UniProtKB/TrEMBL annotation:
GO molecular function, one term: quinone reductase (NADPH) activity
Protein's recorded name: NADPH2:quinone reductase
InterPro entries attached to this UniProt entry: ADH-like_C, ADH-like_N, ER, GroES-like_sf, NAD(P)-bd_dom_sf, Zinc-ADH_QOR/CCCR
Keyword Ribonucleoprotein: no
Gene3D superfamilies noted in UniProt: Medium-chain alcohol dehydrogenases, catalytic domain, NAD(P)-binding Rossmann-like Domain
Keywords of this entry: NADP, Oxidoreductase
Span of domain Enoyl reductase (ER): 10-314
Chain intervals for the UniProt region annotation (Disordered): 1-22
Known EC number: 1.6.5.5
SUPFAM superfamilies: GroES-like, NAD(P)-binding Rossmann-fold domains
């Protein structure tokens, strides 16, 4: 089968395109013919060997996948060859992928393969942050940091669908796209006066919930607009794993600071099912671009340049 893979850590140029043996479904697994597989920020971490990840031998990148069932392994019931499905696994930037049956779900009729493939990693993370950890309620003020990113776009859409008043931060060129997803206002998070700009943009100058995935100084800055009793969920550290926290302010404000954690397989399956259901009724996931698998290097370049809003998806013919 055709696959996009890496052998050694490196830049997008280290990606190889070639023919590898197609996988076979072991017990509890489903073999899928891949139609669409999104490119995730974590794929670039694995390729570069950063964020504690490393390549150990030939590695097909990709986690999210939509396609059709080809065959099932021992003990798998409920799937028939030809079924349209969506799943979460590893090694999806290829023509075939095996997915644990527990992480493979019927593709909702409202989502085509490209939009469904956008959901698993980013959608389930946004769902967990917005619904499970922050417990966003109608009318609450929610600030989504890096709102143009994959997790950010889902977080905006989900919080908006739940009836929250949603605000975002992004590069200025992406603000209109974030507004179109449901944000009432968007602040440029590269401004040196980002805190003052947020205070001016937010009702009452503060928010009840922050969904954060950048880290570093931006994490410390946005915390300054979290209302007393507010909740912040950290679900990524794209820029920096470290941030400054004023413990006296934490004590006085009574904030709840949560990390997304490393949920087990059952929790991930639950989040994935809920995210697919929510995306099917909330709004179509934001797709920045699709590239044929053969152009995976171009797609990686674009992701690393952060020149996109939402999800970049690879397709196979
Ligand atoms: N723990 C989990 O289970 C989990 C799951 C999914 C994602 N994550 C993590 O969450 C983070 C966001 O994921 P994602 O898929 O949404 O990523 P993404 O699609 O690449 O979006 C990242 C966004 O961050 C913004 N940004 C701000 N400062 C940046 C900087 N210094 N470098 C690069 N981008 C910067 C960029 O937008 P602007 O151009 O507007 O600045 C970009 O839109 C990543 O760190 C990812 O690893 C964790």
């Amino acid at each position: 089968m055709l696959a996009s893979y890496v052998v050694d850590s490196g830049s997008p140029d280290s990606l190889r395109l070639g023919r590898l043996e197609a996988p076979t479904p072991g017990p509890g697994h489903v073999l899928m013919r891949v139609q669409a597989a999104s490119l995730d920020r974590v794929d670039t971490y694995i390729r570069r060997g950063t964020h504690g990840m490393a390549v150990t031998g030939p590695t097909i990148l990709g986690r999210d996948v939509a396609g059709t069932v080809v065959a099932t392994g021992a003990g798998v019931t409920g799937f028939t060859p030809g079924d349209a499905v969506v799943g979460l696994t590893t090694g999806t930037h290829a023509e075939y992928a095996v997915v644990p049956a527990t992480h493979c779900f019927p593709r909702p009729a409202a989502l085509d393969a490209v939009h469904a493939a956008a959901v698993p990693t980013a959608g389930r993370t946004a769902y967990d942050a917005v619904v499970n950890l922050a417990g966003v309620r109608p009318g609450e003020r929610v600030l989504v940091v890096a709102a143009a990113g994959a997790v950010g776009t889902f977080a905006v859409q989900y919080a908006h669908h739940l009836g929250a008043r949603v605000f975002g931060t992004s590069a200025p060129a992406k603000a209109d796209a974030v507004r179109a997803l449901g944000a009432l206002d968007v602040v440029d998070h590269y401004r040196p006066d980002v805190v003052e700009s947020l205070r001016a943009a937010l009702p009452g100058g503060e928010v009840d919930v922050i969904v954060e995935s950048v880290g570093g100084t931006l994490w410390s800055d946005v915390l300054k607009v979290l209302a007393p009793g507010g909740r912040l969920v950290t679900c990524g550290v794209t820029a920096d794993s470290h941030a400054h926290l004023h413990l006296g302010r934490l004590m006085v404000k009574g904030w709840t600071l949560r990390g997304i954690g490393r949920p087990g397989p059952e929790a991930v399956a639950c989040q994935l099912r809920e995210a697919l259901t929510l995306s099917a009724v909330a709004a179509a996931p934001a797709i920045a671009a699709t590239y044929p698998l053969e152009q995976a290097t171009v797609a990686h370049d674009r992701l690393e340049a952060s020149e996109f809003v939402g999800r970049i998806v690879l397709t196979t013919s």
